[in-house]
Amino acid sequence: MADLETFRAETRAWLEANCPPEMREPIRDDDDVCWGGRGVKFKNEAQKLWLERMGAKGWTVPEWPSAYGGGGLSREEAKVLSEEMRRIKARSALSSFGIWMLGPALLKYGNEAQKLEHLPKIARGEIRWCQGYSEPGAGSDLASLRTSAEDKGDHYLVNGSKVWTSYADKADWIFCLVRTDPAAPKHLGISFLLFDMASEGVSTSPIKLISGSSPFCQTFFDNVKVPKDNLMGVPGKGWDIAKYLLTHERDMIGGSDSTGGGQRDSVSNIAKRLIGLDAAILADTALRTDIARHEINALAFGLTMERVLAETKSGQGTGALSSMLKYYGTELNKERMELLMSIRGSDGLVWEGEEKGEGDLARSWLRSRANSIEGGTSEVQLNIIAKRVLDLPGA
Amino acid sequence: MPLILTGDQQMIRDSAEGFFKDEAPVSQHRSLRDSKNPEGFSRNVWTKMAEMGFAGVLVPESHGGADMGHVAAGIILEAMGKNLSAAPMLSTAVLGATALKQGTAEQQAKYLPLIAQGAHLLALAADEAARHKPNHVATTATPSGNGFKLNGVKGFVLDGATADTLIVAARTGGETDDKAGITLFLVNPKADGVKIDKRSMVDSRGAARVTLADVQVDGADVLGGVGEGYAILEKMLDAGRACLAAEMLGVSGTSFTMTVDYLKQREQFGQKIGSFQALQHRAAHLFCEVELARSATLKALQALDEGSDRAPMYVSLAKAKAGEVAILASNEGVQMHGGIGMTDEYDIGFFMKRARAAQETFGDAAFHSDRIARTLGY
């Protein structure tokens, strides 16, 4: 415990000295979030400095081993770091699918050479990754994917197309599910391939969404040559990695707030500011009832996350709960956005206006509708709970 | 405190679950009802509960109790909810003990050991209107002799017909809905002017309408300060609400398990109905809801044990969420059982009845949503 307090003091001092003041401001725009990569365009010097300093200490990935560019911190130390960062409202230095998704899978399934090659570059934000999972014909039924990787002796020849590839047009590398054995049953012919998006034959095309933004692409592979060393894990066992990674993704979408930055204000606080009180009661009593109902569920959900974490730590875990968290968390977030739209009324409908920030709410509301689709739909999560937790018979 | 049960609490859970399954299962609830048992519970089971330390779960060791805390009390109530075990646990061991712990040294010494021994039953006579509103007290206590005279009607007194002592909320000052001016009195139900009308409820539990007509009490019967009863009443109610949330969690748990088991047995259209996605999704959603109710309930019980300022907020969260989920779980249980769920022969209907009664007791989800909103300042 004494060691932990020493660590806290040192961490506090280091953050105080090294976190630029600009990086302690709330995130306001998309370009306040740093994604790194070969083509990174820093918004300002502070953002660059912050990434370099955090990357050098491995604190972008505090719990990864230091041999792979991580901070080598214990779970407790990482918690202290996160608390101390929150204390000074420090922004996350790096947002990255490499950190959130590929990294954990690489640590578990990658070989030594792959770990040494890729993990440090993820930690320092030098390479930006994207995920190649869904295909035009393979959404909820992901395992029916058809992008092929044909064994050509010294390399694989990849052909096919991926869809909903987040930021594919900005990514340097892709981790991609491909079919290496077309004859095998659908779950068994899949492999997990890593390759450079700059390879010949790779092209991307952004997809415009109802929210007006284009975070997703369709990605095309036309005779892309990929060295055989780039296959992660065992050929034909890619589905195991895919499932492992989806669990991570679900925890991320369900558990975190998808707005991306810092502590969110509660729906009732926003309502209080915008609608006001009348005799200590929200001036719109009908909406107040809806808000209170939502907040009860939000509070109970937060406590459930806390309990699941405590159970996991103490080995009392009930298992298969990531589907529950993903399902309930995303449904709650959608409900939150619906309520915020109601609170704002006609002001919330503005798409573009004179003032900065007008139109943000409508766009966030529309964006939130994807929460219960991406990473496995709510219906797929309910299927998983019914099958794995309740042991109900298959249809 | 991590949001999980400690090793000791897990042991209490295991012994409570075993005890109620063996000693007070649903079949006993049925036979109590069918035999029109005048008390609505088994004295024999209550005596054994006292021997197990359950009756004294909140009574300090210095008064012969087990002093295991609210989480333990909740664990016991959850096991009772799972089995629909009827006993004066809530009225006496939770509300009664919580109240008497605020009493004078003489009151504590007189009542607390008897509570722990299972030898004295208490009932709270507070609610007057049909919808719970604890500050609504029209019953009056007017000075008389060296004490007070009580006059009024208490509409919904849980276990009121079996109690040895009633804890009556009456007004010594202020207006009908004021929190100030409420005083609690320990009243002998056999005293002159007390009329007890037993009301058998939908869940076959006992309740009574208590009419007080010039009931004379003396100064020694006042619990807490004159005009300062509301704080104690809130304490009692919050302990009761958190424990009711735990009981409802048990009700939800069994409703859910029975229903999922039924989905795996019942065949229609040549297959188990549990293979139909329409029912799978409802069952899976219900699973999530029960998990949320469990987290909220445990948090409330822990907050009471910690004496946290936020305990009332978490208690309302638990009561609101567990209440809503118990209604959902038992309603879905009846619906998914189909016709058989509507029969008296089948147990699932008992759970629906108990869920409704527990939901209405000490504030329903709407009451507690409102209380949470007020606590959060809107």
In short, what is this structure?
The complex is a heterodimer of chains A (395) and B (378). Chain A has 395 residues and is α+β, with helices and mostly antiparallel strands.
Report what the structure shows:
Chain A is 43% helix and 15% strand. Chain A has 395 residues and is α+β, with helices and mostly antiparallel strands. Chain A has three domains: 2-96, Butyryl-Coa Dehydrogenase, subunit A, domain 1, CATH 1.10.540; 129-232, Butyryl-CoA Dehydrogenase, subunit A, domain 2; 242-389, Butyryl-CoA Dehydrogenase, subunit A, domain 3 (Up-down Bundle). The longest helix of chain A has 30 residues, at 285-314. The radius of gyration of chain A is 22 Å and the shape is globular. Chain B contains eleven helices and ten strands. A four-stranded mixed sheet of chain B has the order 1-4-5-8. In chain B, strands 2-3-7-6 form a four-stranded antiparallel sheet, with no helix packed on it. Chain B starts with 6 loop residues before the first helix and ends with a helix. In chain B, 57% of the residues are buried. Classes of the chains: A alpha+beta (395), B alpha+beta (378). Chains A and B meet through α7, β10, α8, α9 and α11 of A and α7, β10, α8, α9 and α11 of B.
Number of helices of chain A: 11
- The fraction of residues assigned to DSSP E strands of chain A is 5-15%
Structural class of chain B: alpha+beta
Count all strands of chain A and give the number: 10
Can you identify the CATH class of the largest domain in chain B?
Mainly Alpha
- What is the oligomer described by this structure? heterodimer
Proper CATH architecture of the largest domain in chain A: Up-down Bundle
Q: How many beta-strand runs of chain B?
A: 10
For the terminal residues of chain B, how far apart are their CA atoms?
29 Å
CATH class of the largest domain in chain A: Mainly Alpha
- Helicity level of chain B: 40-55%
Order of helices and strands of chain B: HHHHHHEEEEEEEEHEEHHHH
* CATH level-3 fold name of the largest domain in chain B: Butyryl-CoA Dehydrogenase, subunit A, domain 3
Here the CATH topology of the largest domain in chain A equals Butyryl-CoA Dehydrogenase, subunit A, domain 3
Globally, the shape of chain A reads: globular
CATH superfamily of the largest domain in chain A: Butyryl-CoA Dehydrogenase, subunit A, domain 3
CATH architecture of the largest domain in chain B: Up-down Bundle
